Amino acid sequence: MRSIVDLSHPITQGMPVFPGDPRVRATTVHTITESGYNVSELCLGTHTGTHVDVPHHVLFSEQAVDSIPMDALVGWAQVLDLTGKQLGREITTPDLDEFAPRLTEGARVLLRTDWSRRFGQPEFFEDYPGISEGAAAWLAGRKVKLIAVEQPSVDINGSSAVHKALLTAGIVIVESIANLDKLSQERVYFIALPPNLVGMDGAPVRAIAIEGMEAAE
């Protein structure tokens, strides 16, 4: 039986955002009472909630949201369950080694840490396990198409080294995904589509996983 699991955090006014990023603000412009219809103005940062990162985010590159290959954002993905490991401040190469046989060239990878359960708590943006530079090279060496994490960033300590390594290798990054603990399969059909924002460095996405769908390969 097919099931669809939402992997996105809801976008709401006053929601937690990465320190220094713009807050979400919604302003009523028209109402049914006054105009006969409702219209709101929405202001938010390009990295609000569950979002995609592209080269223009941290590199001197014109590769922006509108240039992301759709093939990277839609397709079969491997769910790597790291919840049984004693993760330190970083996800390292040894943490990923056991999953190597599952990652063929062009794989999409969803790293389950259950960190999304902490969304809304102060430590969500503070003590999360990032990805080590060695692990980033490991993923790049396997020519992964996409890496999605439950943490707010693949980097820690204000660095952008891992972002740069992954994006330089052509790997699309999705951060702050949610609900990987609700998946029951190791391989799911993954979709994470942003608005077609021309020239932007990132964008919120509505990410979903479909289980029980036969491979169209």
Q: Could you list some keywords that capture this structure?
A:
single chain, about 220 residues, alpha/beta, Glucose Oxidase, domain 1, 9-stranded mixed sheet, two-stranded antiparallel ribbon, 5 helices, about 15% helix
Protein described:
The protein has 217 residues and is α/β, with parallel strands linked by helices. It has a single domain, classed as Glucose Oxidase, domain 1. The protein has five helices and 13 strands. It has helices at residues 32-35, 70-73, 93-97, 133-141, 161-168, and strands at residues 3-6, 25-30, 39-43, 51-53, 74-81, 90-91, 108-112, 130-131, 146-149, 172-175, 187-193, 202-204, 206-211. The strands form three sheets. It has a nine-stranded mixed beta sheet with strand order 1-13-11-5-7-9-10-4-12. Helix 4 (133-141) packs parallel to helix 5. It is globular, with a radius of gyration of 18 Å.
Topology:
Elements: E1 3-6, E2 25-30, H1 32-35, E3 39-43, E4 51-53, H2 70-73, E5 74-81, E6 90-91, H3 93-97, E7 108-112, E8 130-131, H4 133-141, E9 146-149, H5 161-168, E10 172-175, E11 187-193, E12 202-204, E13 206-211
Helix pairs in contact: 4-5
